[in-house]
Structures are given as C-alpha cells and as structure tokens.
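Order emerges. For instance:

***
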Amino acid sequence: MEKFFQHAAMTDGITVRVAVNFLPEQSRIEAGKWFWVYHIRIENHSDQVVQLLSRCWKITDGRGMVNEIEGEGVVGEQPVIAPGGSHDYVSGCPLTTPSGSMEGHYVLRGEDGVLLEAAIPFFPLAAPATESSDRRAPY
C-alpha cells in the first residue's frame, strides 16, 4: 500500500518525503506524554549514487523548547541510494506537549566525494483534541 506523504523538500536532486501520524496507543496523555510515528522516504533523482552519512533534527515542542539531535545514519543504517532509487524508514518522536514540530537535514556523500545537505521538510506534530484536554472550568 502506498503511503500518503504529507510533506516534501528537494535539494540538489534528493527529495525527502514525510508522512506523520499521532499514535494514541503509544501515548500516555494522562502522564503528559504524546507520541508520533513518522515515515521518511529519501529519493535519489540525481545522476550519481549517494550515501546517507548523518542526520540533524530540530524538534520543537508546544512550549517552544527546541531539542537538536545529531547522529550517524538513520535507525542504525547509512544507506546507499542509487540514481532513481529510494530508501524508506520509520521512526518515532515523543513529546511532553500535545503539539510541536520537526525539521532538519541529512548529510549525504555523492560518489564524487562531495557532501550534500538535503533538507528534511518542516512538519507539524499535532495530537487530536481529547476529552481530558478539552475540559473547561465549570463556570
């Protein structure tokens, strides 16, 4: 089944697509914990083989607190993507607020040795309203 990608960014022939979903079954709203899963597809529309070396994420919660995360590869892999090919992976993001956002970039190396920063598009994290979050003072 083809995933519906809601957000996309293209940098020098590399397209990054994102689909994000709130997971109520992984969240503990009464404990102030919300959880999203995101599916990333990295497409190589360039004319050379590229390898994903690292990632840099900027995660912002609903209070405006920013957490920057850098690391090698994605979910333990440094995939090599041929021209016309793609790499998919799924990961998750917990927050202590019912909304926030993510964005960032990947560092890839082409077969010519040149490094490229491919943008990861900005995407919102928004939990649907819940009965407990919709309660109003009785007056």
User: Anything to note?
Assistant: The beta strands are 7-11, 14-22, 34-44, 50-61, 66-72, 80-81, 86-95, 99-110, 115-126. The chain has one domain: 7-126. Confidence is low (pLDDT under 50) at residues 131-139. The two ends are 49 Å apart (CA to CA).
